[in-house]
Amino acid sequence: MSDWTTHAIDLPTGARLEVAEAGDPAGEPVIAIHGLLGTARMHLEDVINGLAGEGYHVYGPSLRGYGGSTPKPRRFPLDFYQKDARDVIALLDALAIDRAHVVGYSDGGEVALLVAGMAPDRVITIASWGSIGYYGEKMRPVIQRMFPATWITDEEQQMHGIDKPDGFVLEWMQTARGIIDSGGDLSVSLAASIRAPLLMMLGTEDTLNPPDYAQRVIDQVNAANPSRTDLARLEMFDCGHAVHELQPEAFRAALGAHLRRR
To answer: Domains plus CATH for the chain?
Structure first.
């Protein structure tokens, strides 16, 4: 297991992000972004330890409002994914990182895709899992089943300062429905700007994320890069949402091979 250090960084976006680091300081940088109700250590500890063991220098920010990051409470305006992406880009500046691999799980995967589209020159490779870049009608019934918030644990409430779990979930649901109602685009419209190798990973039993939605991003990336029609690809795993936990060996092999692409 790698040694971790944790520190907080104030950003010009108004966020103060708690950032966990592990790995070789001289290694290629990787930004690893957690999902809903997570932190880097909570969601991605094994992923980060694995990458650190392979010689990468891994940074795991806790997104604004989660863990030790502020402002709190965590809010969900219609552009919350874009706000998180701008925080990550500002974090690259604060850390004096010109280019990094960017990987993300679930909501963090949506943020990772946006970073690759908003700041393509800053990304070496991009990998996401449990995320698709588009919110369409197929997702509406799954979103609705997230209420009531009985699935949020006491530990999560304490860690993230959530005093009204039902209100927290209702705000997220309202925004998710709003994204669908406004056309569903998260990163599809930015996909043509992505120039780094992209790997999107989904579980065949992921009830939230339809693979044909992810394919929209894949097709846009490849169409915009005719000399590298395999620049982006979708890989499916025989499991549910948390591919890195449910198929760890296959996940590590796929991610490791992808990070070596150029």
So the answer is: 4-135+184-259 (3.40.50.1820)
